[in-house]
Amino acid sequence: MSEVFKGSFTQQEPIPEDAIEAAVAVMRHGRLHRYNTTGDEVAEAALLEQEFAALVGTKYCLSVASGGYAIATALRAVGVGHGDRVLSNAFTLAPVPGAIAAVGAVPLLVEVTEKLVIDLDDLANKLGQAKVLLLSHMRGHICDMDALMALCDAAGVTVIEDCAHTMGAAWRGTPSGRHGAVGCYSCQTYKHVNAGEGGLLVTDDPEIAARAILLSGSYMMYERHLASPPQAAFEKIKYQTPNISGRMDNLRAALLRPQLRGLPDQVGRWNERYHALEFGVRNTPGLSVIERNQNERFVGSSFQFLLRGWTAAKVNDVLSRCKRRGVELKWFGAAEPSGFTSKYDSWRYIDITPLPKSDEILAGLVDMRVPLTFSVDECSLIARIIREEVSSVFQQN
């Protein structure tokens, strides 16, 4: 009888007990709003910002309502306005082009490579058409950041990093989010720390930080931030910067602070599971694993593989067979978006220029969540199921 996986691909681990206790303490005193403090009390949100800044080695940090809000705020804070073009990866999720559209700007998409990172050759050809690159480290895959920054710096292009899938990751020892002018992170349930929703923005630029804090809805209480620039940075802009409220509250911040302390251990656990999956499917006929760069320290919270050159019918057959055995796979080459998964030509609120290299990659790109509720042995079981079903369909070719 064929093996069947019986776990859930959407079940997260419980919130740690110390995080629950911290959240209950906030609920008991009732001061959930980040600026609702008494006496010498420091808000949980301000402490979270200070601790995350120390974790990634940045000067300034802002906690906000979501990762998408962090990105849109970063775009506004670096000066992107209505009608401006913003470069970004073709392979990403909808909140990235959505953030560009939210500020009235126009996404200019760049091809993706078989390593699932931005194509630096295509980027080089398009750098003259925009002043900002919103770089998505999609599904935790980090490109050659040294080469990318050299290109962008030479062209005078400001880089904003979308690190929704790379909190805890690094390129050549530098934390993800620390190469560009701004790094943006997500604290949504399926990311590396879980507040249900939430986001973090980091930068070393005092003007960008001050503008972001004012945009987030600080009113004139920006002095209550700990990981913020000097008060002088606010003086020139505090009357010209609109309030687009998107603050993180103290309840979410209280949930996140203990999780941040445990992040390095969680990264190690994710990568054990990732390597079990990678080992289990490697050398499967018709399947290509995504080879990781040795300079990349990644977080294996999701797993991808390619079925290069396969027809849509064959890919769908693999997905259906695996699903019958309890393994839920997502496909980035589907004609219509499904759940959280969509392809760049589904974003019909932007002008679409065909990207043939990306189309070829996405047509065979299969994706899977790796919750920490899976054991390493269960990941090996999942890999066996994928291997068997891919091999079976491949042999029919």
From TrEMBL:
Q: Which Gene3D superfamilies match?
A: Aspartate Aminotransferase, domain 1, Type I PLP-dependent aspartate aminotransferase-like (Major domain)
The GO molecular function terms of this record are: pyridoxal phosphate binding; transaminase activity
Which InterPro entries has this protein been placed in? DegT/StrS_aminotransferase, PyrdxlP-dep_Trfase, PyrdxlP-dep_Trfase_major, PyrdxlP-dep_Trfase_small
Q: Which GO terms describe its biological process?
A: polysaccharide biosynthetic process
Q: Where are the transmembrane segments?
A: none
Protein name, entry field? Aminotransferase class I/classII domain-containing protein
